[in-house]
Design brief:
This protein has 233 residues and is of the alpha+beta class. The protein has twelve helices and four strands. A four-stranded antiparallel sheet has the order 3-2-1-4. The protein is elongated, with a radius of gyration of 29 Å.
Amino acid sequence: MNEPAETKRHGVITKVERQKRAQHRYNIYIDEVFAFSVHEDVLIKYRLVKGETVLEEDAGLILQAEEKQRAYLDAIRLLSSRLRSEYEMRTRLVQKGYDRDLAEETVERLKRENYLNDRLFADQLTKQRLESQKKGRHWIKQELKQKGLSKDHIGQAMEQVDEETEYRMALSLASKRYASELAKDPLKAKRKIAGFLQRRGYPGSVVSKVLSELRSSAKDETEEAFWAENEFE
């Protein structure tokens, strides 16, 4: 850091100390006084070693770089728990106190490094909700919208949801969850099943098909009035 004649001198680095609780962070002392702490990547980039002169303009750039690095590492920590959409990441960074411009810059960096990929995120979330949680298409589509995904990404993800798969899952859920109630009071159980499946996001056509199958299995002719009054589109 050579000092131009017109540039003000900030001070000389007199001590560089590794933090005990964060081994990748360093405390920087200028003229024997603590000035700031930085991540080792910033330390290396700006060659912050003992004896170096720090100019006022350099100090500003160093602090900006440190803020960017901190936002990036916070984002990586968020991704370590689960995948996130661009919208989710932007929102969480702002909630952590970063300004919107820095949050956007961090998201763009993560996209370049392929840590964020909304298309892949939409596909994987849909598959997980469908196969592991056995949620229906309406639930999944609404969740994808809430996570800020585009119509194109949602449409592509929903292509993997077919009615036959939904039907098999819904029938399995209903049969297992309400087995004892179906044996005791089929009419009451099927009313519960209808609401249960709709709350989980299954379309009316799937709910109707499941109820018809359960009715056929039970061979309960006393419920004809109930089925006539409860049509599902």
